[in-house]
């Protein structure tokens, strides 16, 4: 891109931005299976206004912006209480799930180095856990041992994970739920293993953190996974997923303030400008993301989160019931929260070809690779698409059968 000779006025800029968007999929009418969380324009307006109210404030500057320190404290405090944290717990507002996971791996690494003298650390994690763990491990010099979930329910295989623990293992991970299948790892069993071996236990609740407490209150049976499980050391939970906040918002929570102070804090003094203390990977931090998350909590309130949970679980039921009526398709069991996977139950029907056909009708389909399937991650706005989706899915199955095609595009998940 070349800079314009003279700066443009907003109407021209707006037109160019809209033009840049013209080939994007439409999230507004629920045609995307991933990447967004939308309730209604009222909530979006609240977020935009809150973001704009702090659009250039930098929450690195606690002295300059006590307002942001207070808003961040409120959001963290709510997350801790929702996740049954003990009185002494602590947390940090981060830019997203990957950063929260990064900080958890780094804090566990520094804890193990200081308290156990381990300098070639490894974490044992289910293969279904998010790539962010391997990414963090790669950057931080922590080996991430991914262990297949051989059980039929796609949940962490505790025996197999125990078999991968050695003297350099510093921690275990469980997801609540995992992204590929939407199921909860057995955190109570991981807890027993972690406590018996003196390990850190991180629960990745990036998807479930702000949804499953409400789904539980609706009466759905879900396993325990939060700080009420005594050996859970840290939790990642995304505000910008089912917390319904604007993007750039997640929490990294720790069982004790001491862990945060001793092992998460970066306290640097070796330059001329004086002490630089930070708890995140970021330096400058957008105040807008914190203000928008705080405003989201205020606007939705308890009732709003219950409404989102009800919408998601009702939509899931309508979709799963509808898919069961389409010959040749089946939905993987169990599906415990907002994610489910549709598979072909007929060896002559290629599910990738069904995805291809859905693509021609404007659906951005989440493609599951192992086993091949269609991955769906629901948010409240999917309410609008249930009928259209089921109609197009039945049509796409017919198309795939008719053409006998096999998929052209199996690998393009992200
Ligand atoms: C279970 C889980 N953990 C972590 C992440 C990473 O979150 P982010 O994309 O906000 O970095 C995701 C994203 O989908 C996820 O599903």
Structural class: alpha/beta
Spatial strand order of the main sheet: 1-7-6-5-4-2-3
What name does CATH use for the topology of the largest domain? Aspartate Aminotransferase, domain 2
Query: What coarse outline follows from CA principal-axis ratios?
Result: globular
Q: Which range best describes the helical content: under 10%, 10-25%, 25-40%, 40-55%, 55-70% or over 70%?
A: 40-55%
Tally of domains: 2
Helix-strand sequence: HHHEHEHEHEHEHEEHEEHEEHEEH
The ligands bound in this entry are: pyridoxal-5'-phosphate
Kindly describe this structure.
- This protein is α/β, with parallel strands linked by helices and 414 residues long.
- It folds into two domains: 25-40 and 302-403, Alpha-Beta Complex (Aspartate Aminotransferase, domain 1); 46-298, 3-Layer(aba) Sandwich (Aspartate Aminotransferase, domain 2), CATH 3.40.640.10.
- Helices cover 41% and strands 14% of the residues.
- It has twelve helices and 13 strands.
- The chain has helices at 10-20, 41-53, 66-82, 97-116, 131-140, 158-163, 187-197, 212-217, 257-264, 287-324, 351-360, 386-403; strands spanning 90-94, 122-126, 143-147, 169-175, 200-204, 234-238, 250-254, 266-268, 276-278, 329-331, 339-344, 366-368, 373-377.
- The strands form three sheets. Strands 1-7-6-5-4-2-3 form a seven-stranded mixed β-sheet, sandwiched between helices. A four-stranded antiparallel β-sheet has the order 10-11-13-12, with helices on one face. Strands 8-9 form a two-stranded antiparallel ribbon.
- A hairpin with a 7-residue loop joins β10 and β11.
- α2 (41-53) runs antiparallel to α10 (287-324) and α10 packs across α12.
- The longest helix has 38 residues, at 287-324.
- The mean pLDDT is 95.
- It binds pyridoxal-5'-phosphate.
């Amino acid at each position: 891109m070349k800079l314009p000779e003279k700066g443009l006025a907003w109407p021209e800029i707006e037109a160019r931005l809209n033009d840049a968007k013209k080939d994007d999929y439409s999230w507004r009418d629920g045609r995307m299976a991933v990447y967004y969380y939308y309730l209604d324009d009222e909530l979006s307006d609240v977020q935009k206004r809150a973001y704009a109210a702090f659009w250039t404030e930098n929450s690195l500057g606690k002295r300059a912006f006590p307002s942001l320190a207070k808003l961040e404290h409120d959001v963290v405090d709510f997350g801790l209480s929702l996740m049954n944290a003990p009185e002494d717990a602590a947390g940090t507002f981060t830019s997203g799930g990957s950063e929260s996971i990064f900080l958890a791996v780094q804090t566990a690494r520094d804890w193990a180095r200081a308290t156990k003298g381990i300098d070639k650390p490894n974490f044992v994690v289910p293969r279904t856990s998010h790539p962010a763990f391997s990414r963090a491990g790669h950057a931080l010099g922590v080996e991430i041992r991914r262990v297949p979930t051989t059980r039929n329910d796609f949940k962490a295989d505790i025996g197999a994970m125990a078999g991968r623990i050695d003297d350099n293992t510093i921690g275990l991970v469980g997801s609540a739920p995992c992204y590929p299948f939407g199921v909860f790892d057995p955190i109570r069993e991981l807890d027993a293993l972690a406590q018996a071996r003196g390990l850190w236990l991180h629960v990745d609740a990036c998807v479930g953190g702000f949804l499953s407490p409400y789904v539980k209150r609706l009466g759905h049976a879900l396993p325990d996974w939060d700080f009420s499980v005594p050996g859970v050391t840290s939790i990642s939970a995304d505000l910008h997923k089912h917390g319904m906040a604007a993007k750039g918002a997640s929490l990294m929570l720790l069982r004790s303030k001491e862990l945060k102070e001793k092992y998460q804090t970066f306290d640097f003094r070796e330059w001329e400008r004086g002490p630089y203390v930070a708890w995140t990977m970021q330096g400058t931090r957008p105040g807008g993301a914190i203000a928008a998350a705080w405003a989201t909590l205020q606007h939705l309130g308890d009732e709003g989160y219950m409404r989102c949970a009800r919408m998601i679980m009702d939509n899931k039921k309508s979709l799963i019931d509808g898919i069961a009526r389409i010959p040749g398709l089946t939905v993987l069991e169990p599906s415990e929260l907002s994610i489910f996977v549709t598979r072909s139950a007929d060896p002559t029907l290629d599910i990738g070809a069904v995805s291809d056909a859905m693509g021609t009708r404007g659906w951005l389909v989440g493609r599951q690779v192992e086993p091949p399937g269609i991955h769906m991650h629901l948010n409240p706005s999917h309410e609008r698409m249930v009928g259209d989706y089921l109609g197009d899915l039945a049509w796409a199955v017919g198309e795939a059968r008719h053409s006998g095609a096999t998929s052209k595009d199996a690998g393009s998940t992200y």
